[in-house]
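Ticket closed. Logging final result for Ty3 transposon capsid-like protein domain-containing protein.
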Amino acid sequence: MTNLTEEQVQALDSMIQRQNEILDINRSLEQHMQAMEQQHRQQIIDLGTEIHDYIANNVVLKSQHYQSSSLRLKPPTPFSGNPSYCDSFFVQLSLIFAADELRFNSDRTKILYAINCLSGSAFNFMQPYIKNMDEKDQPQEIFTSYAHFKKVIKTTFGDTNPVVNAEAEIRLLKQTGPAAIYATEFRRISMQLTWNNDALVSQYMLNLKENIKDELARRDPIQDLTILLNASIDINNRLFHRQKQKNTSSNRPSNHHSRTTNDVAPST
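Final structure:
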């Protein structure tokens, strides 16, 4: 191999330095674009909130002729008596009541709406009460107190062992998709448990994907569950974007290969 002259070495060093500078600029641009994308997303979210607040304050609440029919509220999925759906059913009702306080301004209105969203065994359970609903001398508490109505339904159809079932559910929970979904489901189940922070951290780590565990192992141990959840989501997102970059690079045609092919003279 021919030794390079000093001038050639300097020229080569200069080209390498320029290449590194270009790579640094490219990385800086990528970071800037990501920051701008995140900023634009937040602006869209903020604008949506402003629009919602404006409508709530200037269209609905200030309307002199309020009409409940003007609100298009999505009703909850009918509750047929499935214990696993009982809590979610009442959460959906709470959202509807909070979003339309003028319409649902009494316990009786809330109860009647909730009964209208029952089906199957749950509705059959309420039928004997409905038959005697109009007794004004001795009104049934199940039609006068929403808290009592909710208690009766949850006692009859709710999960009888929520803690035991939640423990079994959280031990079986594994990350099979994005960390954000795993973290959200883990947090939902953990709210039903009395486990301390250390136990939750240990259980969450147990069923994370191996590549995320590897990245977490390179960091100082994380003791707080919320910080761990956020860190795992961040790592998952970074690995996902990195894999996309690698896939894009592998699908890009090689300029070096093209030049080599064109430089080879055909056989004679």
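Residues 162-244 form one domain. No further action required.
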